[in-house]
Specification:
21 helices; 22 strands; 4-stranded mixed beta sheet; 5 domains; Heat Shock Protein 90; 576 residues; alpha+beta
């Protein structure tokens, strides 16, 4: 499909699988004169390989890679398009299609449409398979290579279920599928197609035969029970996590398009999914214990990724403060508890997953778990917990408790300031949450891109030297934490000075650990250290020694800063 420049500008690099490069002059085809592989791969052929490995994509030359994607023009392969297409085919054995566009100023943009690699085959640049990560190009990991090499494993959902016909599919479920596809694809005409035509277009019917994906998604209850009895969700409710028998139990064995609604309606009853009442300063709103988007995505992931060759069902256990979802089969090949956020998922049932994606029930491939993390952490709930998963099943625990209402408000306010194309992403919120918890600077090695972005936007502040690097959230967060504490003196809260002063009424000296204990419910260790350093700088406290042996005591001299300190304390004591 040929696009105009304005439509191309609206594309998103990760979601739409597009790579923007200015490439005005001297853009290399195969690495130019570079000798280092890391530098050589940043070339035309390298990006073609990476995008093909992603399952197709578009390489746009002559436009800025910044969000505005301004046209800058490119002279790459000008007048040599046919030769370039031939050369790519000779080297990679795939056919790319290249278009040229010109803006109103005559600046040239070159678009290369890149097909997917063959199933189960790695595309390589100079013998190395490549993948994109954010704005960089990197060598593919062993897990990612294994995932691709394992693609030739038969897709259960694409198999033909020989004993059923279209009459064994549920008419209401088919109508839901057609309605959701028409809405998601902005194709209202799809809804008016005959059932047979629509299901054939989606490959749920192949050569007039019904696939297992069609049975799972659309089959009548009796046919699912007869032919695929493990295709079922069991939901149990218990008032206590230590309780063995359930207080209530329900089994749902219907077409998936019906099952997902019934499952959510059961889990979302007022008694089992109440709301947290957030009332902090001017902020008043309710937050459900269990977020609808999180639960729907988690249940759909369980149904999509489970192994249908195993004769056990998806089980959901609901407690007052937790929901546990288990599905048979373990993680798909290449996915582990450690890389679940950084590697694209590989559904066992590809056809099933493809239909769920096209109808908008699940996120784009590999982004469903991202959504679980983003929404949970944005509500200041614990991150989704896969730690109890093993080879035979995946277990996901979703907790209801809000850990820090101030952080929830902080994230919501920040997201509300941003337009749809500039929202905080999952790794941004992960970093902010870790900083809230007091994780030290050296622990962010794998999140440097988000760390740099958040620092440049003023959402975090770096303190300390390389050896003792710490980060703090911006002052907006601490204003929410202590929204009743005013005024500030030299950047720290006056109430905190009062706490420090009261400590020295009974103690001559203190160590950093003593101050950390004083503010155990208010500040993390990095924040306490930052405040004490400021107090020492203002000569309210003196210090002697170094490192862990440093001792602090009240300054002997009464200078201007200490007078301010005493005045504030006296004022606060008078108010009390």
């Amino acid at each position: 499909m040929i696009m105009d420049i304005e439509r191309i500008k609206k594309l998103k690099e990760s979601e739409d699988k597009v790579e923007f490069k200015e490439a005005q002059h001297n853009f290399s085809f195969t690495g130019s004169k570079h000798t280092n592989q890391k530098d050589r791969r940043k070339c035309y052929l390298g990006y073609v390989v990476a995008l093909s490995n992603e399952g197709s994509g578009m390489l746009v030359l002559g436009m800025s890679d910044k969000e505005s994607h301004d046209v800058v023009g490119t002279d790459f392969a000008q007048g040599q398009i046919g030769n370039l297409e031939d050369e790519v085919y000779k080297r990679l054995q795939i056919r790319v299609h290249i278009n040229e566009l010109f803006d109103e100023n005559g600046l040239r943009v070159m678009i290369t449409n890149i097909p997917s690699r063959p199933v189960g085959k790695l595309m390589k640049f100079e013998g190395v398979p490549l993948m994109r990560t954010g704005g960089s190009l990197r060598n593919m990991s062993d897990e990612e290579m294994l995932k691709i090499l394992s693609e030739q494993e038969p897709d259960f959902s694409a198999k033909i279920c020989e004993t059923i016909t279209i009459d064994d599919l549920d008419d209401g479920a088919i109508k839901i599928l057609k309605e959701k596809y028409a809405e998601k694809q902005n194709n209202p005409a799809f809804f008016s197609l005959s059932h047979h035509h629509a299901l054939t277009d989606l490959e749920l019917i192949v050569n007039d035969k019904i696939t297992y994906a069609a049975l799972i998604l659309l089959g009548k209850k009796d046919k699912i029970k007869e032919l695929l009895p493990q295709c079922k969700i069991v939901i149990e409710y218990r008032r206590s996590e230590t309780q063995i028998p359930s207080d209530n139990r329900v089994e749902i064995q219907e077409p998936l398009f019906v099952t997902i609604e019934k499952a959510w309606n059961y889990l979302n009853q007022p008694a089992s999914n109440p709301t947290h009442k957030i009332h902090q300063g001017p902020y008043i709103f309710n937050v459900p214990y269990f977020n609808e988007q999180v639960i729907r995505e988690a249940v759909l992931n369980a149904l999509m990724h489970r192994d249908y060759n195993i004769t056990s069902e998806v089980v959901i256990k609901q407690y007052p403060q937790k929901i546990t979802i288990t599905n048979p089969g373990g993680f798909p090949l290449g996915v582990t508890k450690e890389n679940i956020l950084t590697i694209n998922s590989t559904p066992r049932s590809r056809l099933l997953a493809d239909v769920l994606l096209k109808t908008g029930l699940v996120e784009r491939s590999g982004q469903g778990v991202d959504k679980l993390y983003l929404l949970s952490l944005s509500d200041s709930k614990p991150e989704p917990d896969y730690s109890k998963s093993g080879l035979l099943q995946v277990e996901l625990n979703i907790l209801a408790k809000i850990r820090d209402p101030s952080f929830l408000i902080f994230i919501r306010e920040e997201q509300n300031k941003r337009d749809e194309n500039n929202k905080l992403g999952v790794f941004d919120v992960i970093v902010l949450d870790k900083i809230r918890q007091g994780v030290s600077g050296e622990r962010f090695e794998s999140h440097k891109e988000s760390l740099n972005k958040l620092e440049s936007e003023g959402l975090i502040v770096k303190i300390g030297k390389t050896s003792s690097l710490q980060y703090l959230l911006s002052s907006e967060y601490y204003d929410l934490v202590e929204n009743k504490i005013k005024p500030e003196v030299h950047g720290y809260q006056s109430q905190y000075l009062l706490v420090i002063s009261e400590y020295f009424e009974n103690n001559n000296t203190a160590k950093m650990g003593d101050f950390v204990n004083l503010f155990i419910d208010k500040l993390n260790r990095g924040q306490v250290k930052y405040m004490i350093d400021k107090v020492v700088e203002d000569k309210v406290l003196n210090s002697e020694g170094s490192g862990r042996g440093t001792k602090y005591f009240l300054a002997d001299t009464i200078d201007k800063e200490k007078e301010i300190f005493k005045q504030v304390i006296n004022q606060l004591n008078e108010k009390d």
